[in-house]
Amino acid sequence: MCKVIAKNGTAIGREDRETGAVRVMSLPDERVKLFMKKTIILSIAIMAAAALSARADGAKAIYEKDCAKCHGADGKGDTKMGKKLGVKDYTDAKVQAELKDEAAIKAIKNGLKDKEDKVLMKPAESLSDEEIKGLVAYIRTLKK
To answer: Where do the domains of the chain lie, and which CATH numbers do they carry?
Structure first.
C-alpha cells in the first residue's frame, strides 16, 4: 500500500501495489464540518435548556409549596395571609424592578421580620443556594 497524493498535497487514497487498485478516502468537506459543529452546538443548547427547564420546574414546585400561601399562585399576594402581611405584588413591573436578586436571595435565606421583630417570612433553611437562585428566577417570570 502507498498513499495517493493530490496536487495540493492532500492524501486522497491508498494504492495496492500488487493489484494497482486505488481506494479513495472520503475527506470531510467544509459542509460536513459545518454540519457537525452545528449539531454539537445544538446538542449543547438542548441539554442546557433541559437543565434550565428542570430547574424552573423545581423552582415552581417550591414556590407553590412554600410561597403561594402568602404570595398567591400568580404572585399578586392577593391571599388572606398575603393581605394580612402586606406582601408585594410580584406581577407588578415596578415591584420587580425595585426587587434586586441579592435582596430576594437574602430574604429567602434569612427570612423577614417587621420593625417589632415579628416574623413575616421564615428562612428557607432546607433550600440549597441553587434552589434559592431558581426560586428568584421563577419569581421574575411572574411579572406581567
So the answer is: 28-140 (1.10.760)
